[in-house]
């Protein structure tokens, strides 16, 4: 089993991941990351499974990159309200939901930040007092 990356090094791994994607995917991952950090300044960046992970009170979302999409998978997405209809992938699952962002697509920044805040609130509400 691989040892987890120390949290203090995770941001550097995410920086490397973004720098290693010189096309639109690197720019999009950087933009998504900035929106997540702006939405929730206390969020923790982690590096798990070779993927950027953002957590607070549990995993909020991951930022995966594929050939044709940047995918944000929300760990408890099925429990979140999504009035703007951002979720467009993994819709049939009972727990997770994802947002696939393709080249040239715009992000509804306000809606994404609201989704991140809602995911954090859900994680924190499940913590014992």
Question: What would you say about this model in short?
Answer:
With 129 residues, this protein is of the alpha+beta class. It has helices at residues 7-19, 24-39, 109-125; strands at residues 44-48, 51-55, 59-65, 70-74, 97-101. Strand 2 (51-55) and strand 3 form a beta hairpin.
What keywords describe this structure?
YdhG-like domain-containing protein; 129 residues; single chain; 3 helices; five-stranded antiparallel β-sheet; alpha+beta; Aspartate Aminotransferase, domain 1
Task: Walk me through this protein's architecture.
The chain has 129 residues and is of the alpha+beta class. The protein is built from three helices and five strands, in the order ααβββββα. The protein has one domain (7-125): Aspartate Aminotransferase, domain 1, CATH 3.90.1150.200. It has a five-stranded antiparallel beta sheet. A hairpin with a 4-residue loop joins strand 3 (59-65) and strand 4 (70-74). The protein is globular, with a radius of gyration of 14 Å. The mean pLDDT is 92.
